[in-house]
Specification:
Elements: E1 14-18, E2 26-32, E3 35-44, E4 58-65, H1 84-99, H2 103-106, E5 110-119, H3 124-145, E6 158-166, E7 169-172, H4 176-179, E8 184-191, E9 194-202, H5 209-234
Helix pairs in contact: 1-3, 3-5
Length: about 240
């Protein structure tokens, strides 16, 4: 039995509320169980120096956790003093979102996606990717409405979910009690039925190819559920 009482293949409750902030071109608050992340997308008509005059757009991300997002207060991280974990997560978010963008169609501009964890209960990077895509899509919709972008550079949602081996069983969408004790922990990022990235490691035990394939099946199911919620949120 999982600590939450969920079935092995059962996601936590998902909700996505859009247009949360006044000024960002795209924004949402995504809730995956007790993990809540505020995501905003900001359009900048300039690109990084290495892309100037290339005709290509760019999408990047920043990630952070509010001081009381967890059970005990954390110190705020200055940008030049970010932990290795924070830097790794925001690079993952940026890579994942860029994989689902037609950068030619986006045009020579940059969109910065900020993901701020308000409350953490496991799976914050996955929730950030899912909510980050919704905020990004809303920002692109605003560009298209204004006539600044002609064809939609986002063809399919980018979603992510965690899977792992908990108490010897493959489980979908780990919350913190499961994540902290999982023998195997993995994060799966997908667009449609295609993989973008897999991060998977043995935390307390090794795992077989057969177990990995079961985790992959769970992730495919979970991402499909998340994609439906993402499409509904931006429609």
């Amino acid at each position: 039995m999982r600590p939450s009482g969920r079935n092995l293949d059962q996601m936590r409750d998902i909700s996505i509320e859009t247009d949360i902030t006044k000024h960002a071109e795209g924004s949402c608050l995504i809730r995956v169980g007790d993990t809540h992340v505020l995501c905003t997308a900001s359009v900048d008509e300039k690109v990084p120096p290495f892309l100037r005059n290339s005709g290509l757009g760019w999408v990047t991300a920043e990630y952070g956790m509010l001081p009381r997002a967890t059970t005990t207060r954390m110190r705020r991280e200055a940008k030049n003093g970010q932990s290795g974990r924070t830097q790794e997560i925001q690079r993952l978010i940026g890579r994942s979102l860029r994989a689902g963008v037609d950068r030619v169609a986006l045009g020579e501009r940059q969109i910065v996606v900020d993901c701020d964890v308000i409350q953490a209960d496991g799976g914050t990077r996955c929730a950030s990717i899912c909510g980050g895509w919704v905020a990004l899509k809303l920002a692109v919709n605003a560009l298209m409405k204004a006539g600044d972008v002609i064809s939609d550079p986002l063809s399919e949602p980018v979603s992510a979910v965690s899977c792992g081996i908990y108490a010897g069983q493959p489980v979908l969408d780990l919350d913190y009690p499961e994540d902290s004790e999982a023998g195997v922990d993995g994060n799966f990022v997908m667009t449609g039925e295609r993989l973008i990235e897999i991060q998977s490691s043995a935390e307390g035990t090794t795992f077989s190819r057969n177990q990995f394939e079961k985790l992959m099946d769970l992730a495919t199911q979970g991402c499909a559920e998340l994609m439906k919620e993402q499409v509904l949120a931006v429609s």
